[in-house]
C-alpha cells in the first residue's frame, strides 16, 4: 500500500485521512493548526510538524485545504520538494483557478490532478460519494487505486478545469432548485402552511417534473427551438402571473424576476414563438 500525505485536516481532510488509514495506507498528515493532527496520530497516522516534512513522506499528496488562495500560499514554497510527486488537489475552486494551479505544477514538473468532491465528509468511502477528476490522466490512473478508496472516481478530461466546471454547474443547479423551495415556502407561509408541509409538496411536484428536464435538454441540443412546445410568449404570461401572485401575498418576487427578464429579452428580439428554453442562449456572455 503506498504512503499518502494529506494536507489539511478540516472536516473533509480528516474524513479522507481516516478513510485511507483504515484502508491500510501509511498516512502522513499536516495541518496549519497542529492540534488537529493529534487524533490522527493517536490512531496511527504520522503527524508531520512541517509541510516540508509532510510532502517528503509520500509520493502522493492529497490537498484538502480551504480554497485556492490557501493552496497556493502553502504549495508555492514547497514546489521543489513536490517535484515528481503526484498532487491531487481536492479543494473547491473555479475552473480557472484549477487551470492556474495546473500550469504552476507543470512549470515545476509536478504531475497534477484536480479534483472536486460531490459529497459531504460522512459519505467519504461510500460508493455514493462521487469524486470528479481532471488534468494529467497518466497521473490519475497511477493514483486511481487510492482515489477509489474515497468514493466513486470519475475522470472528466485533460483540461484541468473540467472537474471544477462540472462541480460548479451541479452546485448551481442545486442552488437554484433550493431557491425554488424558498419561494414556494415564502408564498405558502402567508396562508399559514408550515414550511415542512410545503417542502413535502414541492418535493413530490419536482419529482414528477424532473424527467421534463431531459426533454428540454434535447431541444437545446437540437438548436432550432421550434418544436412547438411551451413558447416564450406563453411562458411570459405564466411568469408574470407568478410574480403578481407572489407580490399580492406580500412576498418579494426577486427570485422569479431573472427568468422574466430573459423571456422579455427573447420576446423583444423576435423570439416570442420559440420554445421557451431558448432562454439558455441569452445566458451566454458574448
Ligand atoms: P474546513 O473549514 O473544515 O477546513 C479547512 C481546512 O483548511 C483546515 O484544515 C484549515 O486549517 C485549512 N486552512 C484554511 N486556510 C488555510 C491556510 N491559509 N493555510 C493552511 N491551511 C488552511 O473545510 P473542509 O475540510 O470542509 O473543506 C475542505 C475543502 O473541501 C474545501 O475546499 C471545501 O469546499 C471542500 N469540500 C467540502 C465539503 C464539505 O461538506 N465539508 C464538500 C465538498 C467539498 P486550520 O485547521 O488551521 O484552520
From TrEMBL:
SUPFAM superfamilies per UniProt: NAD(P)-binding Rossmann-fold domains (SSF51735)
Gene Ontology MF terms in the entry: oxidoreductase activity
EC number: 1.1.-.-
Residues annotated as domain 6-phosphogluconate dehydrogenase NADP-binding: 4-152
Enzyme class: oxidoreductase
Domain of life: Bacteria
Domain spans labelled NADPH-dependent reductive aminase-like C-terminal: 159-283
Pfam families: NAD_binding_2 (PF03446), RedAm-like_C (PF21761)
Keywords noted in UniProt: Oxidoreductase
Database matches in PANTHER family: CYTOKINE-LIKE NUCLEAR FACTOR N-PAC, OXIDOREDUCTASE GLYR1-RELATED
Family, as annotated: Belongs to the HIBADH-related family.
Protein name: NAD(P)-dependent oxidoreductase
